[in-house]
Amino acid sequence: MSETPLPLSVLELSTVGTGQSTADALAATVRVAQTADRLGYRRIWVAEHHNMPAVASTNPPVLIAHLAAVTERIAVGSGGVMLPNHAPLVVAEQFALLEALHPGRIDLGIGRAPGTDQHTALALRRDPRALSAEDFPTNLLDLLGLFGDERVEGGLAERFRATPAAVTAPRVVLLGSSGFSAQLAGQLGLPFTFAHHFGSPNTVAALDLYRETFTPSAVLDRPYAVVTANTLVADSDEEARRLALPGQLMRLSIRTNRLRPVPSLEEAVADPERAAAEAMPSNAVVGGPATAVAALRQLAADTGADELMVTASTHGVAERLHSLELLARAWGLPPERAAA
Q: Which pLDDT score, from 0 to 100, does residue 122 have?
């Protein structure tokens, strides 16, 4: 085992399962964040999804503020804020305030998809003209300018400030599942996170494009790529496959646009669509510690990732916490921050 293993981080959706409330889901997210902090994971990001029965993470800045306050070392951020849903000045003010409260620990992951259906996106932004992805580069540049990026000329920063007297700025990371975001991140010299957990077959091609187009910036002198992966670790391969079934059914419901809470394990086992869920193509990492570590190491080797970000999809929080603990131990995260 290397003395300095590749960093691991966590993507958290605050999933709502059958019989669980929003409060239950958010309490589980707090436990995940605190466990990840204790175990030596580098960062935890929370997603932005709207009008979904299985996801309680609708407002990343609110949740980030709470998670940063109840953790000690781990970086906390968004995975991501969907910029088409928000005015750049609003996002800049929110994250400048978070950074002032927790200097050096705030990440602003930015995505160009709405993260929801068009009706919900319109209810969020209210102006149909603001929903076009074509405006994304301009809005992103406005955001960078508001954080003090001296390369940005004109735009909102000529008249506005994200906060009156900033000392540091949040770490801006561009998210994507396509070549568009990869190329834009490279051209702007930003870190890039590829949503491999979406199941896209284009991970390597997008990361190659990111590195080919990378231009050093004041915030980054070389490319830095994070790759996400659905990862569920249990005591054995068989147990991991069993616990993964609720998450498989949730993904099937998303793909077929029949949204539902995450089913319990008992419901999942008896679900009439179980076979269809298990038959779906998947790049998820599911297994015991040795199996999971081998798969993640291969993913890192194939993609050249500088960091891996894992997200576990199952019904119970105890199983998610155990997955993080098993992976941290098997991966070799810093022992001074790992569980005794």
A: 80
Q: With 50 as the cut, is the pLDDT of residue 2 above it?
A: no
Please provide the CATH number assigned to the domain covering 8-337.
3.20.20.30
How far apart CA 198 and CA 283 sit, in angstroms, is 9
Instruction: Quote the tokens at residue 280.
Output: 């779906």
Written as one string, the DSSP assignment of 262-318 is BPPHHHHHH-TTHHHHHHS----EEESHHHHHHHHHHHHHHHT-SEEEEE---S-HH
Contact 104, 66 (CB under 8 A): no
Instruction: Kindly state the tokens that stand for 226.
Output: 């994070």
3-state secondary structure of 216: coil
DSSP 29-55: HHHHHHHHHHHT-SEEEE----S-TTB
Q: What are the extents of the domains in the chain?
A: 8-337
Residue 35 predicted with pLDDT over 60:
yes
Instruction: Express the helix, strand and coil content of the chain in percent, nearest 5 each.
Output: 45, 15, 35
Query: How would you classify the pairing of strands 285-287 and 43-46?
Result: unpaired
Rounded (10°) CA dihedral 289, 292, 293, 294: 120
Residue 133 has phi, psi (to 5 degrees) of -70, -15
3-class DSSP state for residue 17?
A: strand
Detail the DSSP E strand segments found in the chain: 8-12, 43-46, 75-82, 106-111, 171-176, 192-194, 225-233, 285-287, 307-311
* Residue 235 Cα to chain centre, angstroms: 25
CB 184 within 8 A of CB 137: yes
The pLDDT of residue 104 is above 70 = yes
